[in-house]
């Protein structure tokens, strides 16, 4: 059992589930190993859920393969990034959503990676290889933000982002708050629904204002969505596909839709922290995380959507997982540097015009 450093808050909705791995040396680079010497400590900052799966399928095999003692710091994105900012952590590797990882890059908190030491990058989808630039870590999972709904409460088939403005969703809709990971994505979707090929802030806010009267709640945590959906307080709204299984458990005939205008890529990245004394080992761990075996086990366990293109899933295994080139390569991707630059202004405007 790994040491899980306590004292941090539980995982935020912006987090996505962590990937599992195996010990296949065909897919993950063989470890340097330390022979009979004491194991090297590798500190990993991550989210604190799926603990048993992660210990058994990810950390344990890597420790054995590489003679490593993994210590985990757990918490949500903001808490863990703040520890790096404050210099109160000895983290080597950090998992973050792309929104928070971009902040770390902008602040010079991460090492530039050596891609020659991470050959499995060549086997993952292009969208995941360098989501925040060639110098920084890949996305180890790519999910999608689409629309889920209860067909018993919506008198039409939902196929488009524009359907959220249909009378079928009158007074029974939820959308993410602007401060949630999916908030800027919904803002971009509103701009598209308003007829813009490129993002138009004024058009987006105007369109969302039209919608706000039908919103039961602007959710900040996925658990809020699941509870409202289960109790039929809402008919649906935008949600990350990875959480659809929870909706399906509550409402068996619930549907998830990839909108015709395109769903949005939800990416979690993995980076090496500036000043790590174990940079090469950290890069080996990133390579391990991207391996076919790791990615396949995670996907089949419904823990993470795979980015390794060699992973093959049958229809049952792929249900509820963002899987396949035909899906992943069509996802809309936001410019996270731009999103971070605009976040404060968007939040202020949202509070004035939308969340009244």
What does this protein structure show overall?
The protein is 35% helix and 17% strand. It has 13 helices and ten strands. It has helices spanning 51-66, 77-86, 98-106, 126-129, 183-193, 201-212, 222-230, 244-250, 279-290, 292-300, 315-318, 325-328, 336-353, and strands spanning 3-5, 40-46, 68-74, 93-97, 139-149, 173-176, 215-219, 236-240, 255-257, 264-272. Strands 1, 2, 3, 4, 5, 8, 9 and 10 form an eight-stranded mixed β-sheet that branches. A two-stranded parallel ribbon has the order 6-7. Helix 3 packs across helix 13 and helix 5 crosses helix 6 (201-212). It is globular and about 70 Å long.
Properties at a glance:
alpha/beta; 10 strands; 8-stranded mixed beta sheet; 13 helices; globular; 356 residues; 17% strand
Quick overview:
This protein has helices at residues 51-66, 77-86, 98-106, 126-129, 183-193, 201-212, 222-230, 244-250, 279-290, 292-300, 315-318, 325-328, 336-353; strands spanning 3-5, 40-46, 68-74, 93-97, 139-149, 173-176, 215-219, 236-240, 255-257, 264-272.
């Amino acid at each position: 059992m790994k040491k899980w450093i306590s004292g941090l808050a539980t995982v935020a909705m912006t987090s996505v589930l962590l990937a599992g791995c195996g010990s296949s040396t065909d897919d993950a680079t063989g470890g340097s190993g330390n022979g009979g010497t004491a194991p090297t400590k590798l500190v990993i900052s991550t989210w604190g859920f799926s603990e048993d799966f992660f210990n058994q399928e990810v950390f344990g095999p890597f420790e054995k393969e590489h003679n490593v003692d993994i210590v985990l710091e757990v918490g949500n994105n903001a808490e863990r990034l703040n520890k790096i900012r404050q210099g109160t952590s000895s983290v080597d590797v950090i998992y973050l959503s792309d929104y928070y990882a971009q902040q770390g890059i902008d602040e010079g908190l991460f090492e530039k990676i050596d891609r020659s030491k991470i050959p499995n990058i060549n086997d993952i989808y292009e969208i995941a290889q360098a989501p925040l630039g060639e110098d920084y870590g890949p996305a180890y999972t790519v999910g999608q933000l689409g629309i889920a709904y209860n067909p018993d409460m919506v008198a039409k088939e939902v196929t488009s982002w524009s359907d959220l403005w249909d009378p079928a969703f009158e007074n029974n809709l939820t959308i993410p708050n602007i401060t949630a990971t999916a908030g800027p994505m919904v803002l971009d979707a509103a701009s598209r629904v308003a007829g813009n090929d490129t993002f138009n802030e004024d058009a987006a806010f105007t369109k969302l204002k039209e919608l706000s009267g039908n919103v039961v709640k602007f959710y900040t945590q996925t658990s809020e969505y699941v509870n409202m959906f289960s109790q039929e307080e809402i008919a649906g709204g935008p949600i990350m596909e990875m959480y659809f299984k929870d909706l399906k458990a509550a409402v068996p005939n619930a549907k998830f839709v990839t909108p015709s205008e395109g769903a949005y890529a939800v990416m979690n990245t993995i980076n090496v922290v500036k000043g790590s004394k174990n940079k090469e080992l950290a890069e080996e761990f990133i390579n391990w995380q991207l391996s076919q075996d790791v990615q396949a086990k995670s996907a089949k366990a419904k823990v993470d959507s795979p980015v390794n293109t060699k992973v093959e899933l049958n229809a049952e295994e792929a249900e509820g997982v963002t899987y396949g080139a035909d899906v992943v390569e069509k996802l809309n991707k936001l410019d996270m540097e731009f999103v971070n630059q605009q976040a404060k202004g968007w939040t202020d405007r949202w509070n004035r015009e939308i969340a009244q």
